[in-house]
Design goal:
GO molecular function, one term: transmembrane transporter activity
Distance between the termini: 63 Å
Shape: globular
Strand order of the largest sheet: 1-2
Protein name: Simple sugar transport system permease protein
Strand content: under 5%
CATH architecture: Orthogonal Bundle
InterPro entries: ABC_transp_permease (IPR001851)
Subcellular location: Cell membrane
Keywords: Cell membrane, Membrane, Sugar transport, Transmembrane, Transmembrane helix, Transport
Radius of gyration: 19 Å
CATH class: Mainly Alpha
Largest sheet: 2 strands, antiparallel
Helix content: over 70%
Length: 308
């Protein structure tokens, strides 16, 4: 039993890693009051940029992560200019960004279809990797997985323990009041959105350079939408988002192990399981309005224009 359980749990962390990156970025953006539905597009832009950089420079996943973060940040900047400087509708701009990202990544990626990368090898942390069950699962992973833990700790600490986190939450609750108190509302929202774009770009780069180290058109396969749903599932709390990402990662990885475990289920149904789980979870959460409203930023999706 254990010999089957360990690869499933270890694979769950890898499958959850892009969701953690993208989900943390979207959570920060939404805590500032901005909802960006372009996560899927930013992930694809980051994926193709990261893969191209890794192939052209020979710098591997490290170069891919940097290029993915830069590409995701630039895409988020375009979204920020439209929604904050020009006060465009956030939902419409996010959907447009996703459509643009799908098309742009397909156009650029056609030149890299035949290429592949070595990816990242798992790194066993001394002493910790020898802990029964937990060691092979949590402490024998690639550096991309470990980096996601670092980002989770930073986001949690900033939101819960710092003045910047307090200002971010204040802007998300009432930008008018925050502006009256002298908080730089636009700067905070711009920073949150750009951080979200960088994280989505890293999520995409992880997919193309580590998790599936080759270019496949539309390779995010809806993970950006799942990341947006995860933020709601987590009621805008980083700890719950991490657990939710592991849950969806587990559902994703089970489809690869189900047949080996003797589960006779059509492969098409297994492939649809993560998306079915997303719908079920959102339906269940939407029924509990008190839970949904618990940490919902009051100004989420609302443009802020000083003087209005």
């Amino acid at each position: 039993m254990i010999e089957h359980l360990i690869p499933i749990l270890a694979g769950t962390l890898g499958a959850a890693t892009p969701l953690i990156y993208a989900g943390l970025g979207e959570l920060v953006a939404e805590r500032s009051g901005v909802i960006n539905l372009g996560v899927e597009g930013m992930m694809l832009i980051g994926a193709v940029a990261g893969f191209a950089a890794a192939v052209e420079t020979g710098g591997g996943a490290g170069a891919g992560f940097l290029a993915g973060a830069a590409a995701g940040t630039f895409a988020a900047l375009c979204f920020a200019v439209l929604t904050m400087s020009l006060a465009a509708n956030q939902s419409a701009a996010g959907l447009a960004l996703t459509i643009f990202g799908i098309g742009l990544s397909a156009f650029i990626g056609q030149h890299y279809v035949s290429h592949s990368l070595p990816g990242l090898k798992p790194v066993a942390l001394p002493l910790l990797s020898s802990i029964p069950l937990l060691g092979p699962v949590f402490f024998t992973q690639d550096m991309g997985v470990y980096l996601s833990f670092v980002f989770f700790g930073i986001v949690w600490w900033v939101l819960a323990k710092t003045k910047l986190g307090l200002m971010l939450r204040a802007v998300g609750e009432s930008p008018e009041s925050a502006h009256a108190l002298g908080f730089p509302v636009f700067a905070i929202r711009y920073g949150a959105v750009l951080f979200g774009g960088a994280m989505a770009g890293i999520a995409g780069a992880y997919l193309s350079t580590v998790y599936t180290p080759m270019w496949v058109q539309n390779m995010s396969a809806g993970r950006g939408w799942i990341a947006v749903a995860l933020v709601v599932f987590a009621t805008w709390r980083p700890g719950r988002l991490l657990l939710g990402a592991w849950l969806f990662g587990g559902v994703t990885i089970l489809q690869f192990h189900a047949q080996a475990l003797g589960v006779r289920v059509p492969s098409q149904l297994l492939s649809a399981l993560p998306y079915i789980a997303t719908i079920v979870v959102l339906v269940l959460i939407s029924r509990d309005r008190k839970l949904l409203q618990l940490n919902l930023p009051a100004s989420l999706g609302k443009s802020f224009v000083p003087g209005r």
